[in-house]
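Data availability (excerpt). The following record was deposited with the supplementary files.
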Amino acid sequence: MKETKTISLEEMKKDPSTLTREMLQDISKPYEEAKKAFKEASEAYKTDVEDKKERIRNKRDQMAATLEELAAESERLAEEITDHIAEGDDDKAEQAEMRMDEITSEMYSLEKKIIQFQTVGVKGDSALFKAASDAYNDMIKIEKRASDIAHDIFKAAEEWAKHFTDIQEKAFNIAYGRQNFTGHTKEDGIMVDITEQHDGLINVDGHHAGSDINAKIRYVRGSLRGLEGTEAAAKRMEGVTNE
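Predicted structure:
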């Protein structure tokens, strides 16, 4: 089995690149293998028990069949005994009675055994039980180790998740947070106001940039997209040409 490199919690806290899916696979693999080994060992024990139960059931069924045969023979002997007595043949009647006593004893013994087979517990092979027990204990040890490592990974990942979420939120605010619901910043509006105060009205009549304020903001930002053919665009182009 490949030896998994142990990385401490402190190392994981210092370097998020140590937190990988491969690391989780490495700690999960020995546990899954241990689970498989226990499953195989426990199933071997259970199979042994079922095989023994099956043999007992077969034996019990055989004894039950024999019991039925003896019962039928006992009934037949009872009729023979009656006939022999009626005919005055005491010797044959006595022989039939002796056989009937033997059958009665056999039936009693069989009935007792059948009852015992129905109530007795069946144990599996001791060696197979030990193998299952050892496999289970090995699995528990590996599970504990995997759980401890996974707990450290979870704690480190949780801290890094908070760290990167904070960075993500701050980056979002820089990228988009300055804009209002129109997609522009407060500063865009201020620049439009002071430009018109300084240079006069920004005439965007005939623009194709959505709202007038959007067109004016494009103007102060230096974009003429959607302003083609407007006085503002011509003024901006004139300024560029003069430069």
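Summary of structural features: The two ends are 74 Å apart (CA to CA).
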